[in-house]
Amino acid sequence: MDRRHAHRKADGDWRRGGGDPRDDAAQRGEHGPHPSQRRPGRPVDRRDPPGPGGARVTDLWGRLEETIDELSHVTDIKSAAVVRRDGLVVTHTLPEGVDPKIVAAMTAAIVGTSEMATIQLSQGRFVRAIVESDHGKLLSLGAGEEALLVALVYDDANLGLVLMAMERAAKQVERIMQEAVSA
Fold first, then answer.
1. Hey, which bits of the chain come out as E strands?
2. What is the arithmetic mean of pLDDT over 92-119?
């Protein structure tokens, strides 16, 4: 079976919506007014180095995108996303035609409900949710206190390999998000 991520553009622009939110804010209308329409104030100097102990937001954003890109290149993974526990999209490599906002909201609901179920049923700590369908699986797991990691995988995927890659990526996302909070 050919698994070369056919849904991605050949020109290398595989993200379709991920990326720096400044790049597509006008077309998606999600990030507030364009800078030229904001109230006047001190201009942002993106060349300033981070303060002591703090990391630049753009650096953290780029590291999140690198993490999700690496995860998406695992052979059996079709696409992946980092979402917040409140159901908002952080970054993704979801294919065209899949609404990342809906995926984020559903993932948050699935994981939240699963976490409550494991507590109510005295089953210990929630580890992951796996939703199986005719055409593949949706795997979701926590990535720290703030984020969740979700991946769409092929129906015959090697789950051991996929879960190992997802757990490694979840730890990276958790570290990056912790740096963002402490910055």
1. 77-84, 89-92, 128-133, 136-143, 147-153
2. 95
The amino acid at 118: T
How many whole angstroms separate alpha carbon 107 and alpha carbon 9?
Answer: 26
Phi and psi, residue 36, nearest 5° = -70, -15
Q: What's the total number of domains in the chain? A: 1
143 in Cβ contact with 170 (< 8 Å): yes
pTM of the model: 0.68
Domain limits for position 76? 21-182
Residues 6+ apart with CB under 8 A from 21: 30, 31
**Residue bearing tokens 């796996």:** 130
pLDDT per residue over 107-164, tens digit each? 999 999 999 999 999 999 999 999 999 999 999 999 999 999 999 999 999 999 999 9
Q: Cα separation of 98 and 95, whole Å?
A: 6
Task: Please give the backbone phi and psi of residue 89, each rounded to the nearest 5 degrees, phi first.
Answer: -75, 135
Question: Is 64 within the bounds of a domain?
Answer: yes
* Within-domain flag for 137: yes
Query: Do the Cβ atoms of 141 and 127 come closer than 8 Å?
Result: yes
